């Protein structure tokens, strides 16, 4: 069984990257702050990211590397009892998500440039024809609907957001470490089936989080072909997308290929 200092495999494991990348992005925001208020907000966000990263790493070490709570306590400078109290519930929750997540289906659609001019739920914010076409196709594919926003990252349709002007790949757009952190926070990082209805600028970050993600729009040449394929997917009779994470609709195998 691994112990702190005995086995360094965990330092190279893929599960390390979401935690360290998530913290690094917030640390960069602290360094980039130009006013005391910006610095205070960035430090507050960094502290929250550190708490999340500490929990994620502790959970992964227990479930993947076989550490005991005594091992975790030594690593963070506390007692076994304190480590157990802090991390037992997250460990159990992670185990449940891992078991049930294999049957979950997630459908990710991109944000759009056309937006409402005031705060609104993400499911109502985007008004452009491309986003609406993606939503119609997602409604037929089945699964839990998630919107990928260039500014906010992964959003549930009921999350209220402000309008913005930003696309994936532009300076200031959300990065892969943040998307990984959000996916884990939402409990969808272990989803068995993930489909992304988007072009490469949005699909590539999704694939970085879920390497097994299906990308039906790959191979299309330009917007007209994408719109035609989305219309075809929208005509396919399958199970509607649901937004309640506790009751994901089943994914109909082969529809997104």
Cα-to-Cα separation, first versus last residue: 42 Å
What is the percentage of strand-forming residues? 5-15%
Arithmetic mean pLDDT: 84
Order of secondary-structure elements: HHHHEEHHEEEHEHHE
Largest sheet: 5 strands, mixed
Q: Given the structure, what is the number of helices?
A: 9
Radius of gyration using CA atoms only: 20 Å
Question: Spans of 5+ residues with little confidence (pLDDT < 50)?
Answer: 7-11, 239-257
Q: Share of helix among residues?
A: 40-55%
So what's the overall shape? globular
Count of individual beta strands = 7
Q: By helix and strand content, what is the structural category?
A: alpha/beta
Walk me through this protein's architecture.
With 257 residues, the chain is α/β, with parallel strands linked by helices. Helix content is 49%, strand content 10%. The protein contains 9 helices and 7 strands; from the N terminus they run ααααββααβββαβααβ. The strands form 2 sheets. Strands 1, 3, 4, 6 and 7 form a 5-stranded mixed sheet that branches. The protein has a two-stranded antiparallel ribbon with strand order 2-5. Helix 1 (16-32) packs antiparallel against helix 2 (36-63), helix 2 crosses helix 4 (80-101) and helix 6 runs parallel beside helix 9. The N and C termini lie far apart (42 Å). Mean pLDDT is 84; it is low at 7-11 and 239-257.
